[in-house]
Amino acid sequence: MDMYTKAYQRYVEKCREFGIEAIDLIEFIRNLTTEQVQHIMIQS
Questions:
Q1: N or C: which end of the chain has fewer CB within 10 A?
Q2: d(Cα 34, Cα 36) in Å, to the nearest integer?
Q3: Domains of the chain: total
Q4: d(CA 38, CA 18)
Q5: What are the pLDDT digits (tens) for 10-44?
Q6: Which domain range does residue 32 map to?
């Protein structure tokens, strides 16, 4: 779960950077695969 939380934090940072509204954590987890989350973590 920690991996998803860190990826979500990165996602929220990027949403703020681009001025768009972020989805909530539950929707984030439901809509991403483990591979996608790992990719987000690599980009950090």
A1: N
A2: 5
A3: 1
A4: 21
A5: 999 999 999 999 999 999 888 888 888 788 777 76
A6: 1-43
